[in-house]
Each structure stands twice: as C-alpha cells, then as structure tokens.
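Narrative of activities, Objective 1.

The group set out to show that a structural description can be obtained from nothing but a protein's sequence at a throughput compatible with the screening campaign. Below is one input-output pair from the validation batch, recorded exactly as produced.
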Amino acid sequence: MPPKLMQQVLIDVNLAETYSTMVKDSLRRSGAKDFDSLAVYYRSVFDHYHITPAQFEASIEWYKNNPDKLDTIYTAMTDKVVKLKAVEPQHTKPGAIINNNNAAAVKHVPAQ
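Output recorded for this entry:
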C-alpha cells in the first residue's frame, strides 16, 4: 500500500479503535473496546478504501519491516490529526462523528 493511502487507512483505523471504546454496553466496563462494533468499523474503513483485511495486514507487515517508512507515515499522521482536532468540534458521543444514516460508517479523513 502506498504511504499516502496507508496514512489515511491508519488514521481511520485509529479512529475506529477510539470509537469502539465509546459504544455503551452494560456488559462492558467503561472505556473497554466493543469488538463487535470494532469489526463493523474496520469493515467500513476497508470498504471505503477498497482494500481487504489481508491487504491491510500485508501492508502492516511490510511497514514493520521498513521502520523508516513507518516513522515517516506516523509523523505525517500526527500532523494531520493535530490539524483535524483544531478543525473538528469536540463531540461527546460517537453518533456525532459517525454518520447517523449508517452507524457503521466511520467518518473518513479527506485525502490531501
């Protein structure tokens, strides 16, 4: 996966991880990941970028074996997330960020 695409996917995967801790469920402690919702969020991210879980995993492995490339991606990700936080209003519930028409559709970061 090219670096720009990997950066976008990783940002959305990290958002999905965060959103999965916001799902209210009486069976889970507060702040624990809801793996059911996480699976749906991951599928939404992969579908959005037209990639498979296997392609994502293969790319993760490649970048782990090329840490200089991964560091470059994470540095760019940090800058982009800081900019997003400055633009995005603070929300108290995931429904404010996740598309209310399709609760499984994680908000995707626009490509630059």
